[in-house]
Amino acid sequence: MFQLPEGSWWDWDVVEWNAGRVRLGAGSDLSYHHGLELVFGDPVFVMCPAVFHDPAFREPKPDEVRSVSRQVGETPAVLVAFEADAGGPEPASGLIAAGRLEVVQGVVFRYWREDLAPGERLAPWVRPPDA
Question: What's the CA gap between 131 and 125, in Å, rounded?
Answer without folding.
Answer: 12
